[in-house]
């Protein structure tokens, strides 16, 4: 454990309050700054006039700021936070810093569910949004379960095997999506492909509330288990001795992380790598304590995706880049760096994730990455 | 002008709907579009509609277009709102449109839904036949208060189309393979406007029964159809040249042996707009060169 100072750690509560406060301020500042950025030529003065509710604010400025930029900023902040917390959850669950919704194939599973729903004409009304999220959750659940079944061996979840299983499940679901796409009417093809790249778009107030509720539920579920996740990091045996029901814990974390992934995929599309970049950066800054990491990721993920989306909508204005493209560009190098640095491997001491004991005399080599 | 005539004229002018009157229209997909007044600021997300708005002289009303609206050249001077798939909503709102022309084939449903949420009326066009294109022209004429010009322009196109059809009617119909995209091979089939144009130009599209719209097709099947004329669409200069040499190797085909492999301007055929008669004439010249001695059919 590091980051909490040496010797007697300061009370987590005070430290947590400080970190959450600071990140909250950064997020608020990023959100406020993003209100002034966009392809429409709205002067900063008019943005301020709209925000302060002045009568003089032009109708155009009001629509751009309140109906387009504000909801989009909210979606970006929510989606980023959800993905980052899902990343923390999957990393704690697998004790593998490379585990992340898109790497584990969970995003692809969720995307398959959503594309299926879109083929049946589900959109983003409040009711349909629930349907899409349910389909996404089913897809995420199946993908995650498949990865677990493929990767779990007598010796637990070896890092390499887990990643390969994630990649292969991801490829499988991508292929399944391709099959669905080839059945789509060509006129709707562009729309589906655009969605698959991952885009943050302004959504109406009703569905936005649904999204916020689902995100809050998922974050709360993961955050409520943070202390137990810290114990799980010591290894399954140790956690069991300390009274943690590891299996139940893993089920809850998986459900929470899958729900978060599903919600983001349903409302914004499969945006990758946020769950890898943000937790990794925060661990370097704040240390590995999940009690701090989960709320920090919820805010920090929002900051990251908000910045990426603001870039996406201004870099080639008036056209827009898909934010998923930007996160992938940022994420791939981070992934490679993590893969190369053996020091980053968590859980080297004990790669087993299942309660089954490793065979006697087996060195847990599966957890090491051979360069 | 006697005072009476002057008075009558004034009365007539007052009786005609002014720009301030509400307007209820049915768009090309059957939706009812209600506008508070004759639209003065139109954004077109459809290159074909942009061409038509220029052709009927309504370009002054056009305040925004897509990156793909490159014809007529003056269209390039209009402010762009981005691509067809992901135009910038912000840019559109900032142009203060009172109408957006969009299409279900090429724009996303999400874009239309978002515009409607912002209470910007959307007029959808989705031409699936030559008759639809002419209807679209008349519809856009009604939207812009240029009904008469649109009617005359459409009539002119109708006459040109009829002239071509009559000229080739008595001739044997060569088997035509039209290639929309070379790899994967995509061809026009049932219900595609290009299929109808080939028939009007006196050809027989070998892929007319291949499915609906624009399906993927196997090269083998295309070769087995023994096309006598092969047309390869070139889509804007940016996409690069069509793979003529790839087809040239298929020397067993009658079309290749007789040198009847042609590259055509894809935009002309797939952008259903004001150049539809021009597209038909170009097609007929390629299919029946003998019917169109050097002089153009103007």
Summarize the structure.
The complex is a heterodimer of chains A (371) and B (298). With 371 residues, chain A is mostly helical.
Comma- or semicolon-separated keywords:
heterodimer; A: 371 residues; mainly alpha; 14 helices; 69% helix; globular; B: 298 residues; alpha/beta; 4-stranded parallel β-sheet; 12 helices
The gross shape of chain B turns out to be globular
Largest interface: A-B, 29 and 28 residues
Number of strands of chain A: 0
Rg of chain A, rounded, reads: 21 Å
Q: How far apart lie the N and C ends of chain A? A: 26 Å
Would you report the number of β strands of chain B? 10
Q: Percent of residues of chain A in beta strands?
A: under 5%
How would you spell out the order of helices and strands of chain A? HHHHHHHHHHHHHH
> What composes the largest sheet of chain B?
4 strands, parallel
Please give the structural blueprint.
The complex is a heterodimer of chains A (about 375) and B (about 300).
Chain A: H1 12-34, H2 44-51, H3 59-94, H4 106-119, H5 126-151, H6 159-183, H7 186-196, H8 205-224, H9 226-232, H10 236-241, H11 246-268, H12 274-286, H13 290-314, H14 323-340
Helix pairs in contact in A: 1-13, 2-3, 3-8, 3-11, 3-12, 3-13, 4-5, 4-6, 4-11, 5-6, 5-8, 5-11, 8-11, 9-13, 12-13
Chain B: H1 3-15, E1 23-26, E2 32-35, E3 42-44, H2 47-55, E4 62-64, H3 89-94, E5 99-102, H4 109-117, E6 122-124, H5 130-144, H6 147-168, E7 175-179, H7 193-200, E8 204-205, H8 219-224, E9 229-234, H9 244-248, H10 254-257, E10 261-265, H11 266-270, H12 276-287
Parallel strand pairs in B: 3-4, 3-5, 5-6, 7-8, 7-9, 9-10
Antiparallel strand pairs in B: 1-2
Helix pairs in contact in B: 5-6, 6-12
């Amino acid at each position: 454990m590091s980051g909490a100072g040496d010797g007697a750690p300061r009370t987590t509560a005070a430290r947590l309050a400080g970190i959450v406060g600071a990140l909250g301020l950064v997020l608020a500042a990023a959100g406020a700054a993003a209100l002034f950025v966009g392809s429409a030529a709205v002067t900063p003065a008019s943005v301020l006039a709209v925000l302060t509710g002045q009568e003089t604010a032009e109708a155009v400025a009001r629509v751009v700021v309140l109906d387009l930029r504000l909801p989009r900023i909210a979606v970006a902040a929510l989606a980023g936070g959800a993905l980052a917390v899902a990343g923390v959850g999957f990393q704690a669950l697998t004790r593998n810093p490379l585990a992340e919704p898109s790497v584990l194939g969970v995003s692809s599973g969720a995307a398959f569910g959503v594309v299926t729903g879109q083929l049946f004409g589900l959109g983003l009304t409040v009711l349909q949004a629930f349907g899409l999220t349910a389909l996404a959750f089913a897809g995420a659940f199946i993908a995650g379960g498949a990865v677990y079944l493929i990767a779990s061996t007598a010796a637990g979840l070896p890092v390499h095997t887990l990643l390969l299983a994630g990649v292969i499940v991801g490829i499988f679901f991508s292929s399944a999506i391709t099959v669905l796409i080839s059945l789509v009417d060509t006129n709707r093809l562009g729309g589906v492909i655009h969605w698959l790249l991952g885009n943050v778009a302004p959504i109406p107030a009703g569905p936005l509330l649904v999204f916020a509720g689902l995100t809050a539920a998922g974050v709360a579920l993961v955050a409520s288990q943070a202390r137990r996740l810290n114990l799980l990091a010591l290894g399954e045996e140790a956690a069991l001795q300390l009274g943690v029901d590891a299996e139940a814990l893993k089920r809850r974390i998986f459900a929470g992380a899958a729900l978060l992934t599903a919600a983001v995929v349903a409302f914004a599309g499969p945006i990758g790598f946020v769950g890898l970049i943000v937790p990794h950066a925060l661990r370097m800054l704040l240390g590995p304590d999940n009690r701090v990491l989960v709320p920090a990721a919820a805010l920090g993920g929002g900051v990251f995706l908000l910045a990426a989306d603001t870039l996406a909508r201004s870099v080639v204005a008036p056209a827009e880049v898909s934010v998923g493209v930007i996160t992938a560009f940022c994420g791939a190098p981070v992934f490679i760096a993590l893969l190369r640095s053996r020091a980053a491997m968590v859980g080297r001491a004990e790669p087993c994730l299942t309660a089954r004991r490793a065979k006697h005399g087996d060195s847990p080599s599966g957890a090491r990455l051979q360069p | 002008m006697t005072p009476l005539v002057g008075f009558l004229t004034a009365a007539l002018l007052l009786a005609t709907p002014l720009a301030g009157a509400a307007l209820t229209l049915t768009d090309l997909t059957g939706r009812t579009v209600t506008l508070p007044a004759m639209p003065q600021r139109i954004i077109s997300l459809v290159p074909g509609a942009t061409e038509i708005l220029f052709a009927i002289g309504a370009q002054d009303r056009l305040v925004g277009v897509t990156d793909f609206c490159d014809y007529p050249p003056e269209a390039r001077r209009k402010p762009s709102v981005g691509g067809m798939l992901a135009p910038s909503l912000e840019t559109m709102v900032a142009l203060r449109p009172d109408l957006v022309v969009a299409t279900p084939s090429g724009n996303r449903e999400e874009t239309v839904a978002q515009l409607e949420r912002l209470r910007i009326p959307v007029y959808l066009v989705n031409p699936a036949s030559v008759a639809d294109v002419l209807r679209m022209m008349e519809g856009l004429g009604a939207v812009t208060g240029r009904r008469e010009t649109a009617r005359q322009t459409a009539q002119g196109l109708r006459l040109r189309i009829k002239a071509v059809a009559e000229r080739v009617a008595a001739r044997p119909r060569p088997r035509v393979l039209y290639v929309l995209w070379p790899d994967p091979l995509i061809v026009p089939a049932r219900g595609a406007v290009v299929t109808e144009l080939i028939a009007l130009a006196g050809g027989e599209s070998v892929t007319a029964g291949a499915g609906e719209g624009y399906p993927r097709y196997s090269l083998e099947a295309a070769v087995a159809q023994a096309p006598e004329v092969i047309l390869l669409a070139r889509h804007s200069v940016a996409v690069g040249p069509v793979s003529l040499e790839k087809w040239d190797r298929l020397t067993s085909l009658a079309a290749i042996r007789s040198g009847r492999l042609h590259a055509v301007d894809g935009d002309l055929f797939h952008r259903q707009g004001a150049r539809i008669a021009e597209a038909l004439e170009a097609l007929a010249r390629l299919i029946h060169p003998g019917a169109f001695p050097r002089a153009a059919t103007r």
